[in-house]
Amino acid sequence: xxxxxxxxxxxxxxxxxxxxxxxxxxxxxxxxxxxxxxxxxxxxxxxxxxxxxxxxxxxxxxxxxxxxxxxxxxxxxxxxxxx
Length: 83
Fold this sequence. Notes:
Helices cover 80% and strands 0% of the residues. By secondary structure, the chain is mainly α. The chain has one domain (2-60). The protein is rod-shaped and about 95 Å long. Keywords: Membrane, Transmembrane, Transmembrane helix. The chain crosses the membrane at residues 5-23, 35-60.
């Protein structure tokens, strides 16, 4: 049962470990703050990835597709018509 609780999230694992080892609650607080800050930083990095990297990848994909289209159309034979 303890191993199931440890896999839930860092906050519960810290609390379960501290209760199992009889650490006073005053010593739990810094660990809880560190765990919450870590989760917040990871969430912020996730948002940065979604906001910055995904549109950049889409723009690069469009540039590659446009470049290949321009290359394909520039190699087509041009018909010369006389007026």
